[in-house]
Amino acid sequence: MELLSAVTTWFADPAHWAGPNGVPYRLAQHVGISLASVGIAGAIALPLGLYVGHTGRGQAVAINLANVGRAIPSLAAIALVVPFTQMLDPQLGFFLYPTLIAMIVLAIPPILVNAYAGVAEVDRDLVESARGMGMTEGQILRRVEIPLAVPVIVGGIRSASVQVIATATLGAIYGLGALGGFIVEGVAQRDDGRLFAGVALVALLALGAEGGLGLLQRRLSWSRNP
Amino acid sequence: MIDWAWIGDHLGAIGGRLLQHIELAAIALAVGFAISFGLAIYSVRVRRAYPIVTGIAGVLFTIPSLALFSALVPVTGINTLTVEIPLVLYTLVIYVRNIVSGIDSVPAEVVEAADGMGYTQWDRLRRVELPLAVPLMIAGLRLASVSTIGLVTISGVLGQAFGGLGFFIFERPTFATEILVGAVGSITLALTADLGFAALQRRLTPWNRREVGDEIATSGRSAAPGLTGM
Q1: CA A45 to centroid of chain Cα atoms
Q2: Where are the domains of chain A?
Q3: Who contacts B69 (Cβ-Cβ below 8 Å, separation ≥6)?
Q4: Distance CA B30, CA A18 (A)
Q5: Going by C-beta distance under 8 Å and a sequence separation of 6 or more, which residues neighbour residue A93?
Q6: CA-CA distance, B128 to B136, in Å (whole number)?
Q7: CATH among 1.20.81.30, 1.20.1050.10, 3.30.870.10, 1.10.3720.10 for A2-219
Q8: Is any Cβ of chain B less than 8 angstroms from the Cβ of A38?
Q9: Which of A73, A113, A192 sits opposite B187 (nearest CB)?
Q10: Whole-number pLDDT of residue A40
Q11: Does B211 touch chain A (CB under 8 A)?
């Protein structure tokens, strides 16, 4: 209860809502970096996954790539690129690029695997009859496979988004504010109100993304099975 | 840019941190599996409980580990328990989903045949469903080990006594060599665990050579809330 009141007091303080260390600014930073990394990851992983799913070529490569990507701990990924990006740009190279790159690496595997699996799972008879109707390969992909695979594809984007939102907090260790900033400062200053306010904001954002994309996933399903 | 002399001088420390990393991860993987196994069996028996169990475990997974480690300090102090509680909690959603989908993947006719042979519900679970669920359970173990090994690095926020190889990432944020040792070390350890369990999976299920099928099953339609560690 003490904790709850510490968090409410923290949220009630107008000083915590203003400036570059305030809630709105850091929330926007967090949303921004999450959107950017999921967007870039999607631009890389979706075409690749659709291609592999449609042609069946390069399955092993795609799966292994996804597995390797999954095995890279995010803190390690951030730390690994810091020395290199810092040489490129001493400012952004320390706080922005490492987190962005690590979040892209984190988001690629679920998007890739689900895009691939979604298309590969489409009933082969349907694809054959589409081919028999004279559809080109591009048309089959656009009009048959993607519409049927869309719930699975969105499912991949959904898990990628939730992971990225929760994990982007690590960027705060390297000075990228975002919502992780509240957590790192809360720990350093032994300020439980600030710490748990940060936790609550990240969790709410992650659950919001999970719920929102889950709703989208259900709306896009053709067969509305439970 | 890599200071090889530093690495040479610190081989002992690196080895010690590697062992600590493995130990912290292994405890969490074992305890997490035991708890998840109970939860999964209960969810299979009482189907209503399944969405509740995975819902709660999924919400736990969205709590940033950086925060969870730190938040426990006022409650449990700075000790191994504080490291293990978050690590165990993060494994639950992965294990439970995989064990339950493993049991669900047993074909209905096999279950019926077992019933027809007069198996009790318990015997059927023990002698038919669990052995057939092994591939998906090991797929879960693979994901959980990779995720946990990544999360151990973050326990370095609790101070120098913890973190495994993550200690080197936290110790001096400006010394590239040391950061690379921590990062490359933990990535290598995670990949080794993944490959090791994949090999185990193939050995235990020689009839199932199609690895691709497992991958689909682990990240399929229901889209687990999160499978890689932060």
Answers
A1: 12
A2: 2-219
A3: B82, B83, B86, B154, B155, B157, B158
A4: 46
A5: A82, A85, A86, A87
A6: 14
A7: 1.10.3720.10
A8: no
A9: A73
A10: 97
A11: yes
Residue B157 contacts residue B170 (beta carbons within 8 Å)? yes
Distance, CA of B189 to CA of B182 (rounded, Å): 11
Q: B175: exposed, middle or buried (C-beta count within 10 Å: 0-12, 13-18, 19+)? A: middle
* Structural contact between residues A128 and A205, judged by C-beta atoms closer than 8 angstroms: no
Give A25-48 pLDDT, tens digit per residue. 999 999 999 999 999 999 999 999
Predicted model pTM: 0.81
Region B12-106+134-218: CATH code? 1.10.3720.10
Query: What are the residue ranges in chain B where pLDDT is below 50?
Result: 211-230
List chain B residues with CB under 8 Å of A76: 150, 153, 166, 169, 182-184, 186-187
- B150, containing H or E segment: helix B130-154
| Residues of chain A predicted below pLDDT 50 | 224-226
Contacts of B193 in chain A (CB under 8 A): 71
